[in-house]
Structure formats: structure tokens, C-alpha cells
Specification:
This protein is an alpha/beta fold and 569 residues long. 62% of the residues lie in helices and 11% in strands.
């Protein structure tokens, strides 16, 4: 939990100011009952109008001072809480950016969204409560106890009895609602996950006419959240009428027993009124602290969820080597990989090299481990055994920045960001000139835009699949890299466009290495070396002609695509 408190360190001066204004506010509130007692005991008893007016003016000054102190308290507490939430979101966001696929498999993306938004908002709201209520309650309560005992009455037992009843009520309610706080956060995760799945799958849902089924699925989870929240808030809202009843009974008891003392002249009438006000302040302070205890478990759940993100051990860490030599050679040496919680190895004993000036291709069935190989090169994941070497040095020994600067990775799914064509291209090289961008767009056959300032909508929904792939390829080749990795990113291109783009890309391999993963024979048949994979193993390697003649699996793929895809052998 220490990580959660770090953002508060630079806000200590503001917190000290808040405490000062709370003390001022409490002092003013505690002074008012004594003024009331003086008005009754002196002003009214002696019919002294001037005394009543002067005391009333002092009460107005105290009220005004209390209001001003409360305004400053609210102002600074809002700044502290919102600033804390902003800083905490930054810390969580920076930590999540360091996550590898392993960490993302442990904490789901839907849960990360909930933790970054809902959970941090819960903590922010509680900080406001702490600064404005929790710190104020003990100051008011302790001051009220001191002032009440200064009146020297024998009615203190009523306050004690009231406190015991209030404490019992709070304990009962806390026991009932605490288990549901964690449940509501988990259900919120499920709602986010379900909503995300439905929104991303709208085309599929419509194609298979599954709207009603998905609606029922969402309504079921939504009802779970409604039921859980209703149970929690029904129990919490019992507090208000119950405490109102307790306070009124306390006042009646004070008036009843205080009346006997007043008749016996052991207490003044004004002191009874003051004692009632102090008692109300004392019980109210306990109620404020009790109310915080009720919401505390919910915040602790949110705090633990945020702390889980911050305390997650990063499996992909930096090495010490900051530069990669020119014309590097990358080698897979007896590499195997197994996904977390999987009993089957995805990759088994993989060996191959990527050398400057050469193009290597990988082909194989779905689930054979092709994309996993590409993920291992920029260290999105690390192999469970074996080594990946650059110039005979394990890539783990390089800093992530130096390693990834040498790699251009075009994923299977074209991911573009909302903005402009230029803003997306600058992700490939942040200082690229317009000429460099236009040249990359030309190589990727991006001939469907008017200018670099054309808008790109969210998820690039204003472009077709093939257009998004060409933009993604252009972004990948805009900078100079030693290794160009293409993960089946030509699947949405027609044969003619693919052939042109592919020939343009081969011009990059003069001083660099190209690794292409594809299901199409037309995409890889010109590669210098083709690796054929099956069940996570490289079962054969060679050129297109060699494999077509000697490898049965490769020949079957070629044969199946001759008619369906028009592959020219």
C-alpha cells in the first residue's frame, strides 16, 4: 500500500492547511453552545438585551469564521483528492505500459480499465471524505467531550449509552455489507468485459442475428450489479433513520433527567441546552467516523486492486547494453515457449537465423506458433527455454529501447489511432519529415488519401481492412531498422497490390533482415528461406521450389491454393 501513498507526499503542505482550517471550524462550532448557554443563563435571566445582542454578534462572527474555514477546507481537499487521483492514474498508466503479454494474461484488459477509472475514483472520493469529515470528526468529538465535562453534570452516562448503541448498529451493518463491496467491483469488471466483447463483435452479432441473446447476457450481468448495489445501499441507508431515532431519544433523556437537576438547582437551564448541543456534536462525530468505517472496506478493495497492478512484478526487464552493432544477425537457438497455465509447449526447439540482406518466411497452420515467434523477438514475451541472440549476445542483455529501436513490427491486426494520417505515421518515427512519410506511403501503395492531414477516426473505422493494413505497413517501414517483422499483414490485400507492396519491401532487405509470417504461398514464395511449422516445431526449411518438391505439408498448402487463390507456380 506504500505505492498508493506516494502521490500524497508533494501535497503535505495543502493537507497541513486543511487540518488548520478544520481546527478553526471545530473551535467555532464548539464555542457556539457556550454562547447559547450564556444568553439563556445571563442575558434572558437578567433581561439584559445588550448582553444578548453582543453575544449574538460574537456567535455570528463564529458562524462566519466557521463557514469561511469550511469553504477553504472543501477547496483544498478537492485539489488534493483530484490531484492525487491524477498522479495515481499516471503511475498506474506508466506501469501498465511496461506490462508484457504475461502480465496482461494475469490481469485482464477489462479489469485494468476498471482499476484505472472506477477504483481510483473510489479512492479519490474517500480522500475527500477523510480530509473533510474523518479528520474533522475526532477533533469535534474530543472537543465536545471536554466541553461537556466542563459543565459538570451527571448526565454523561446518556452519551456513553448512545455511543454503545450507535457502535452496535454500525458493526451489524458493516458485517452485512462488507462482503458485497468486493463483489460489486468484480461484477463491474464483468460488465466492462462483456460490453467490450459486444461492442467489438457487433458485426458478428448482427450477421448471426444474436442481438437478443447478447442483450439477455448483458441484462443478466447488469441485474447482478443492480441487486448487489440495492442490497448494500438499503442496509447503509438504514443508518440515517436509525441514528435520527437514537439522537432524538438521547435528547429526550437529557431533557427528562436534566429537568430534575434544574428543579433541584444543580444545573442551569442554559447548561442543559449546551449539554444537548455538545452531546449531539459528540454523537454526530461518532456517526461520521462510523459512516467512514462502512465505506472503508470498499475503498480497501479498490486500494488492493490498484496495489496489485503497482506491485505486479514485470517479467520483461531492461538489460545493460545500450547499443546494437551494425548489420546485426539474430539467431533463435533451441528456443521453446509455453504460455502461462498451459501444459503444452507452443514452440519446441526452434532454430533459425535472420541475416542482413535476406528474407525469411514462416508458414504453417493456425496455432502452429508463427505469431509467437514474432512476439519473442521484440520481447513482448520471453522464451521459457533456449536463447534468442543478436550477434551472439542474448537479447535480454540489451535495453528494451535499444532492442526495439532495431525492430519494426507490423502486427496481424492493423491498429491505427484516432488523429490524422501524419500523427499515425509519426508513431513509426517521431521526427520523420513529410517527404519520408510520403515515400513510405508510396512504398505501401497508400494511394487512397488526399493529404497527410486526412482524418483517422477511432479504430480507423473510415478505412477498409486493406487500407488499414497498407497504412500499418507504411508506418512500420518509415524508419530505418535492422529487422522488419510482418505478421500476416497482407491478408486483406488483393494479389496485384500485394505483389507491388512485397516487391517494394524487398528493397529494404539490402542492409536489413525481413521476417514474414503468412498463410499465403504468393506472399512468401520469393523468400530466401521458408520455414514450415507444425504443432510448434519447424518440420522443414528451404526455398519454395525445394519445399514444394520435398515437403508434403508445404506441397499440400500449395496445391490447395492453386485454384482458390490463383497462385502462380
Amino acid at each position: 500500500m506504500k505505492n498508493l501513498l506516494k502521490p500524497l507526499k508533494n501535497k503535505i503542505p495543502q493537507i497541513i492547511l486543511i487540518i488548520f482550517f478544520l481546527i478553526v471550524q471545530a473551535y467555532c462550532n464548539l464555542t457556539l453552545p457556550s454562547y447559547t448557554a450564556d444568553i439563556v443563563n445571563v442575558g434572558i435571566q437578567n433581561a439584559d438585551v445588550d448582553y444578548i445582542i453582543n453575544t449574538g454578534v460574537m456567535m455570528l462572527i463564529m458562524v462566519g469564521t466557521s463557514v469561511i474555514a469550511a469553504i477553504f477546507t472543501s477547496y483544498f481537499s478537492s485539489r488534493v483528492s483530484s490531484g492525487y487521483a491524477k498522479d495515481l492514474r499516471k503511475i498506474v498508466y506508466k506501469k501498465v505500459l511496461k506490462f508484457s503479454n504475461h502480465e496482461l494474461n494475469t490481469i485482464s484488459r477489462a479489469s485494468l480499465i476498471t482499476r484505472t477509472t472506477n477504483d481510483i475514483n473510489q479512492i479519490q472520493n474517500v480522500i475527500v471524505v477523510i480530509l473533510t469529515t474523518l479528520l474533522f470528526a475526532p477533533i469535534l468529538g474530543i472537543g465536545g467531550v471536554i466541553r461537556a465535562f466542563e459543565l459538570k453534570t451527571n448526565l454523561s452516562w446518556i452519551i456513553l449509552m448512545t455511543f454503545i448503541i450507535v457502535a452496535l448498529l454500525l458493526v451489524i451493518i458493516m458485517k452485512r455489507v462488507i462482503p458485497y463491496f468486493k463483489l460489486t467491483q468484480e461484477i463491474t469488471d464483468k460488465i466492462n468485459r462483456t460490453s467490450r466483447e459486444i461492442l467489438l463483435g457487433i458485426p458478428v452479432i448482427k450477421a448471426f442475428v444474436r442481438q437478443k441473446t447478447e442483450q439477455e447476457k448483458f441484462e443478466k450481468i447488469n441485474k447482478e450489479l443492480v441487486d448487489a448495489n440495492l442490497y448494500v445501499f438499503r442496509n447503509i441507508f438504514i443508518i440515517l433513520p436509525a441514528m435520527t431515532l437514537v439522537l432524538n431519544v438521547m435528547i429526550v433523556l437529557i431533557l427528562y433527567f436534566g429537568a430534575y437537576d434544574a428543579i433541584n438547582s444543580s444545573i442551569l437551564t442554559g447548561d442543559i441546552i449546551a449539554f444537548i448541543q455538545y452531546s449531539t456534536q459528540i454523537v454526530t462525530s461518532f456517526l461520521l467516523m462510523g459512516g467512514f468505517l462502512i465505506i472503508l472496506p470498499r475503498v480497501l478493495v479498490s486500494g488492493r486492486r490498484i496495489a496489485e497492478v503497482l506491485n505486479t512484478e514485470i517479467t520483461i526487464t531492461d538489460g545493460e547494453i545500450k547499443t546494437v552493432d551494425d548489420n546485426p544477425v539474430l539467431e533463435f537457438k533451441n528456443v521453446s515457449y509455453k504460455y502461462p497455465r498451459s501444459e503444452i509447449e507452443t514452440l519446441k526447439d526452434i532454430n533459425f537465423k535472420l541475416e542482413p540482406g535476406k528474407t525469411t518466411a514462416i508458414i504453417g497452420g493456425t496455432g502452429s506458433g508463427k505469431s509467437t515467434i514474432l512476439n519473442l523477438i521484440p520481447r513482448l514475451q520471453d522464451p521459457t527455454s533456449g536463447e534468442i541472440l543478436i550477434n551472439d549476445i542474448n537479447i535480454k542483455n540489451y535495453t528494451l529501447k535499444s532492442l526495439r529501436d532495431e525492430i519494426s513490427f507490423t502486427p496481424q491486426k492493423a491498429i491505427l489511432f484516432q488523429g490524422t494520417i501524419k500523427s499515425n505515421m509519426l508513431l513509426g518515427k517521431d521526427n520523420a519529415s513529410d517527404n519520408e512519410i510520403e515515400n513510405a506511403l508510396k512504398l505501401a501503395q497508400v494511394d487512397f488519401i488526399n493529404s497527410l492531414h486526412d482524418k483517422v477516426s477511432q479504430e480507423a473505422s473510415n478505412f477498409s481492412g486493406g487500407q488499414k493494413q497498407r497504412l500499418s505497413i507504411a508506418r512500420a517501414i518509415i524508419g530505418k531498422h535492422s529487422f522488419y517483422l510482418f505478421d500476416d499483414c497482407f491478408s486483406a490485400l488483393d494479389m496485384n497490390t500485394e505483389a507491388i507492396v512485397k516487391n517494394n519491401l524487398y528493397s529494404l532487405s539490402k542492409d536489413s533482415s525481413i521476417l514474414i509470417v503468412s498463410q499465403r504461398i504468393s506472399t512468401i514464395k520469393d523468400a530466401d528461406e521458408i520455414l514450415v511449422m507444425n504443432n510448434g516445431e519447424i518440420i522443414d526449411r528451404g526455398t519454395h521450389d525445394e519445399l514444394n518438391e520435398n515437403c508434403d505439408i508445404y506441397h499440400e498448402i500449395v496445391t490447395s491454393q492453386i485454384d482458390s487463390m490463383g497462385v502462380n507456380l
